[in-house]
Amino acid sequence: MARFHNLTVTDIHKTIRDAVVVTLAPQNGAAAEFDYIPGQYLTFRRDFDGQELRRSYSICAGLDDGLLQVGIKRVDGGAFSSWANEELKPGDTLEAMPPMGKFHNPIDAKASKHYLGFAGGSGITPVLSILKTTLAREPASEFTLVYANRGVNTIMFREELEDLKNSYLGRLTIIHVLESDAQEIDLFTGMVTPEKCAQLFEHWIDIKSVDTAFICGPEPMMLGITKALHDHGLSDDQIKFELFGSGQPGRAARKASLKVEGETAKTTSATVTIDGTTRAFQMPKDGQTVLEAAIENNLDAPFACKAGVCSTCRAKVLEGEVEMVANHALEDYEVAQGYVLTCQCFPLTDKLVVDYDQ
Ligand SMILES: Cc1cc2nc3c(=O)[nH]c(=O)nc-3n(C[C@H](O)[C@H](O)[C@H](O)COP(=O)(O)OP(=O)(O)OC[C@H]3O[C@@H](n4cnc5c(N)ncnc54)[C@H](O)[C@@H]3O)c2cc1C
Ligand code: FES
Fold first, then answer.
1. How confident is the model at residue 259 (pLDDT cuts 50, 70, 90)?
2. What is the whole-number distance in angstroms between the Cα of residue 242 and the centre of ligand 1?
3. pTM attached to this predicted model
4. Which of 102, 244, 330 to mutate to test the pocket of ligand 1 (most atoms within 8 A of CB)?
């Protein structure tokens, strides 16, 4: 089970005015815990005026950079991102859980594939890590990146991307789409909509040759791009996406009726296992999630976003049924196997057995 570790900030610098790149070194011999797969993220925790906040940031370094690095873009009025941009400095200690997330694809040195990445704003961070590692470790593969930003000044990692383009001439194509800055080619101005994707696929990107697409950005943009990719023949398992925030109800929530026949009690006898420790307790069927009940009963249950986005709170239901009200993180096959996001789950049956260790 993932636990928090201390990491030292060894470097912090601006990539644009409103975003910092933070380099971290795990303390107390925990380096191996922070081995990561490109596309994964770290979840940090920090106390803000007596309230613990947990926030996730994707690793932006590639495996061959030999660094553990995240990029944090300041969100207006945002607690953690503003603090990181304004106050965090080298020598400070941050607490983070080991890398998590499933936004990745296996790297195969012999592969000769075409990958397509769509990133919006700070959504570039995991895509950059994947792009750098793939180009370095799959010498016959190519990568096309469509990177959407408001204007030139808000393009994170702009110089690094230019350098990569020069290093991987012929294998890396980058298309910057800018919402408000005019560009030589009209198609590259505006929002990345399904219509714009269709035009890009017609004139600039050979969509038929694409093996896998990675999408990370604001949810409406991601949904539009997913639609366009489907319309052009890509299947669900060829499309990987990572959501940074959540504004809408999720997809693939576990289908369950609100009432299960014969399950009449107002409370549930819950049995929860974490780190090999099992605890049994009563919890209400309404008003409290499985995660909240576990924490209230002194179990150290893991969580970060509490919004069904990050999957840190994932566990398996071994007995009983739950209603999962939002799911932006689990794949359909995981839901079918009984995995749930406990921050989004309410019990439906009189008995519930949940295991965080599986
Ligand atoms: C898997 C994952 C990976 C991510 N990777 C990255 C990454 O690589 N880089 C990156 O920059 N971000 C990333 N994010 C997003 C990041 O985790 C945070 O959500 C983001 O930085 C905002 O956090 P914050 O604490 O700064 O803002 P918050 O304090 O959570 O505020 C968010 C917004 O809500 C508003 N708000 C806050 N409190 C209130 C209130 N009481 N009333 C009304 N409005 C309010 C704020 O003004 C702000 O606009 C990722 C998220 C996930 C889930
Ligand atoms: S804590 Fe993020 S999905 Fe539950």
1. low
2. 15
3. 0.88
4. 244
